[in-house]
Prior knowledge:
Helices cover about 45% and strands about 10% of the residues. By secondary structure, the chain is of the alpha+beta class. The longest helix is centred in the first third of the chain and has 16 residues, at about 50-65. The protein is built from ten helices and five strands. It has helices at about 5-15, 20-25, 35-40, 50-65, 65-80, 85-95, 95-105, 110-115, 150-160, 190-200; strands spanning about 120-125, 125, 140-145, 165-170, 175. It is globular.
Amino acid sequence: MNYTGPKVKLSRQIGVPITPKAARIMEKRSYPPGQHGQAKQFRRKVSDYGRQLMEKQKLRAQYNIHERQMRNYIDRATRKKGVTGDVLFQILESRLDAVVYRAGFARTIYAARQYVNHGHVLVDGKRVNLPAQEIQVGQTVSIKQKSRTMPNIQEAVSDAAPPSYLSLNKDNMAVQLVRLPQREEVPVICEVQLVVEYYSR
């Protein structure tokens, strides 16, 4: 599946809105894109493999990560103590671009990655341009002083309502990871056990 094309089309393919625009359009057209999109909803039952594959695609799309990265994260989660699916979400939510997005500094995960790549984001006061960098509990992620006047960032922050595992200071455009999240706190649509099963084949 192509993760670099139109995000509305991708959202309709996987059945999950991954941008605000996609969410608005999917309220009216929730079925898959294409001439036969509506008919696809009534096709024969999907196989177990097909369900696992779809859930994996959903998860990858919502974090905007490559297949190789996802496989590495699964391997890490499997080696750690705890429920693999729960640990996987803790790893994914610790990515710098995910923290920027969840904090409300960006409207989409794609914008969050762009801000990191372009040097607008600091970790404990130091510029970091690696979206996959893992943020540790207690670390602070902030928007660089000169970048705080950017309209897109200001508009995003004004509506920010981060989950409870993040502590946001809107005035300073800074957020701290106060603890690792529980699965039910992570606003991601995915049956993670099916993802684990996919990579366990």
